[in-house]
Each structure stands twice: as C-alpha cells, then as structure tokens.
Amino acid sequence: VQSSAALVRLRASLIARDDATGGNVLQGQTLLTAQVPANTADAAGGAQAMARAVDDVAAQLSRWLERYGR
Predict the structure, then answer these.
(1) What is residue 10's predicted lDDT score, i.e. its pLDDT?
(2) Residue 54 and residue 46: Cα distance in Å, rounded?
(3) Per-residue pLDDT at 2 exceeds 80
(4) Backbone dihedral angles phi then psi of residue 66, each to the nearest 5 degrees
(5) Residues 6+ apart with CB under 8 A from 60
(6) Beta strands 24-37 and 5-17, pairing class
(7) Distance in angstroms (rounded) separating the CA atoms of residues 4 and 50
(8) Within its chain, how far is the Cα of 14 from the centroid?
(9) Which of 11, 18, 55, 60 fits a 20 to 30 Å CA distance from 31?
(10) Cβ atoms of residues 45 and 4 within 8 Å
(11) Alpha-carbon distance 3 to 50, whole Å?
C-alpha cells in the first residue's frame, strides 16, 4: 500500500537593520517542518494535505516571530 503526504520545510531568518553601522544583524534563524498525510492518493488529497501543511508551518512561523515581539 502506497501512502501520500505533503512535506513543507521552511528556513526563516529574522534580520534587523543596525542603525549604528547601516548594516544588517541576524536576530534569529529557525527551520520549520510540517508533514501531513493525504487522506486520499489522488490530486485532491495531495492538495488538501499541502494546504494543511502550509497552514501548520505558517502557525509555527507566527509563534516563532512572537518570541521576538514581531
């Protein structure tokens, strides 16, 4: 039996402007991952799984940014 899943992997970097030097400062970096199984082994099931995986990673990104007051 074959199974299908959507996998989203995102690397996020939070970069701030350093007014003193005019350069950029890396404030944080993270790797976010979501893997969601498809309910059906067709295009519709894959699209639904991808939508859920993207929503999951977006929520993870939002929580990560909140830690930096963003």
Answers:
(1) 98
(2) 12
(3) no
(4) -60, -35
(5) 32, 34
(6) antiparallel
(7) 11
(8) 13
(9) 18
(10) yes
(11) 14
